[in-house]
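Could someone model pyridoxal-5'-phosphate with this protein?
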Amino acid sequence: MQREIKMVELGAQYQRLKVELDQAIFTVLGSTQFIKGPQVSTFENNLAHYLQCKYVIACANGTDALQIAMMALGLQPGDEVITASFTYVATAEVIALLRLTPVLVDVHPDTFTIDPAAIEAAITPKTKAIVPVHLFGQCADMEPILNIAAKHNLYVIEDNAQAIGAEYTFSNGSKKKSGTMGTVGTTSFFPSKNLGCFGDGGAVNTDNEELASKIRKIANHGQSVQYVHDEIGVNSRLDTLQAAVLQVKLKYLDDFAARRNRVADFYDNAFAELAGVKVPVRAPYSSHVFHQYTLQLSGIQRDEVRTKLAGVGIPSMIYYPIPLHHQKAYESAINPSSSFPVTETLCNSVLSLPMHTEFEQQELNFIVKSFISIFNSKGS
Ligand SMILES: *Cc1c(COP(=O)(O)O)cnc(C)c1O
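Reply:
Sure, complex below.
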């Protein structure tokens, strides 16, 4: 029997790495050190080594990572934080939750990441931080963003939940891993992320020692010494079991990215000449780890394409269907005079195809053949 095609194939990846993963998990079960076991700090050190940054502090999820980073930077109610209008809700959520003011700016139509020119235009005397999101697996254009931040003395918090392992190339040729260019980087280990665990997980990274110790303190109830609370913190830990899983998977992260790139190359080639389909644009300044493979469609009913794909057993997703400024929870927080034409267009035209590390060639052939035939029969 043929297996079902999925957006993300976690089952087959587990089977492929099962021996190592099971061993890592059973070691934790045997130790019963479910909280703060040695695997947590080992994983933090291994990830810091991989990212080539000084400090990694693991936490409970990627949303917490953003919140803890913003708390550690001492951002105060009323401070304005600039972020992209086309992103997952978590980015704006923590800004609003901390009573900071989210200032959304539009994204670039090719890369889907925050438009540096729009950032500059949105800066006011109250602006304290910029949160670029490395969306779908590709770095935002960090060099101009870092220049703007330096000029206006702003923090840069990189939301790296979707692009861990991607690399940015500066104009002088030097390279840095996504999440390690700004003041602080945050990531998520949600199971479907490129480095996913078997539940929730996240991490914050920085090169600043003082900031790192503040982050660690805030993630642990604001305590430096047990039962001594210097400030209000949160309880946000990475379970030992998840750290053990991540320690195994981190070794394969570059291989995962290579596998995802092979899938993207195959899709790109197949769809290159297809009218009404724009394949993902690869920015010259960033490698791509293809967290998502996202097309832009034009001249065709997107829902109809999805229904026809689903009819032959091919799932597809829309990331993201409703922009933040049209979400009830955020409407009042967002300046009514601002407009986000690129984001509006993207929300109406993007379509993400299955993307993961475990495809069989026949599945890719089938997806491509089915997609092209739906396009060629459009209007009939
Ligand atoms: C997944 C994600 C988050 C949040 O991560 P969780 O671990 O689910 O809390 C934040 N930002 C972006 C861009 C994400 O994709």
